[in-house]
Design goal:
By secondary structure, this protein is mainly alpha-helical. It contains nine helices and no strands. Helix 4 (53-75) packs antiparallel against helix 5, helix 4 packs parallel to helix 7 (119-137) and helix 7 (119-137) packs across helix 8 (147-161).
């Protein structure tokens, strides 16, 4: 394991703090040059710490992704498997609509590097898997639904509602519609 020099650690922290602000303001396509300038470093320093835009986005969203993973882990043993899954999907939807750029970042698998695995999507999918399995065992989920399907649906909802006057409310409405289906049972 390599140990970073103190100035490299400070640069990393400063770049990440500026990137969080820039992504919140401008989305996933925030200017890397502006991030470097605002952080007071050269663009080569940004690239040394974050070799791709995707690596930078993963770092920006890492803390919140970990919170969603922890939330799924804590809910995995809940008595009502369906409710646990739906509550987690609601939390994912709330975060995806409030964190500008996250939904776009979740769709970037392979865009910077065809061999790159989207770490954010992979973590969310891995977190949803146990919740989904339990809900499927309880008969509360249509056979064949995957955790990747659910993350993709939430990502699509977040992207579709990003410019809505009330993205959170519209995203919740669309998630509810998705979960109920468009055709009445019966």
């Amino acid at each position: 394991m390599t140990v970073q020099r103190a100035d490299a650690r400070r640069n990393y922290a400063r770049i990440l703090a500026v990137a969080e602000e820039e992504v919140a303001a401008h989305g996933a396509d925030a200017s890397l040059e502006n991030i470097a300038r605002t952080a007071g470093v050269g663009s080569a320093t940004v690239r040394r710490h974050f070799p791709s835009r995707h690596a930078l986005l993963e770092a920006v969203f890492a803390e919140r992704i970990e919170a969603l993973v922890a939330r799924a882990t804590a809910s995995a043993g809940a008595p009502d498997a369906r409710a646990a899954l739906l509550e987690w999907l609601g939390a994912l939807t709330a975060y995806a609509t409030s964190a500008r750029g996250l939904a776009d970042a979740l769709t970037r698998t392979g865009m910077d590097d065809p061999d790159h695995v989207n770490a954010c999507s992979a973590k969310l999918t891995g977190a949803a898997d146990p919740l989904l399995r339990r809900a499927a065992q309880a008969g509360a989920v249509t056979p064949g639904v995957t955790a990747a399907d659910l993350v993709t649906l939430v990502t699509g909802i977040a992207l579709a509602t990003e410019h809505h006057p009330d993205p959170a409310a519209e995203a919740n409405r669309l998630l509810d519609l998705t979960l109920r289906g468009v055709s009445p049972q019966g």
